[in-house]
Amino acid sequence: TKGVFSTNPGYAGFRCPMKEEGGGWVPDFNNRYFTEDIPESFAIYKGIAELAGYSTPMIDRCFLWAQAHMGKEYVTGTPGNCKLNGKDAMSTKAPQAFGFATLKEFLGITPPSAAKLGINGFGR
């Protein structure tokens, strides 16, 4: 975790965006690292794992932590059992937001069902 970020050359120079608040420093949850990376990339990983039937306890923990500070709801549930079906899930780039309900549909093995468009059946 901390070692991954401190020793991986791909993360060299990256810092958590912070803002001064109450005489100290806190993460800036309005920074693009949160407002763009969570729904536009992180959600894709969660969505594919969900389609494949894989439990993602650490991804779930990250989602639950970030969304609580962002005023968003992408996932619901508890770590290891979260589903990408929160009120803001349709604003992500997850496969489910584009109508994919199964891994076979996502991989193009079977066509998407028109009746299952998007999360909660609402389509994108």
Automatic annotation (TrEMBL):
Protein name in UniProt: Opine dehydrogenase domain-containing protein
Xref: PANTHER family: BLR6086 PROTEIN, OPINE DEHYDROGENASE DOMAIN-CONTAINING PROTEIN
Superkingdom of source: Eukaryota
Annotated GO MF terms: oxidoreductase activity
A Pfam family this chain is assigned to: Octopine_DH
InterPro entries from the UniProt entry: 6-PGluconate_DH-like_C_sf, 6PGD_dom2, Opine/Lysopine_DH, Opine_DH
Domain Opine dehydrogenase residue range list: 4-69
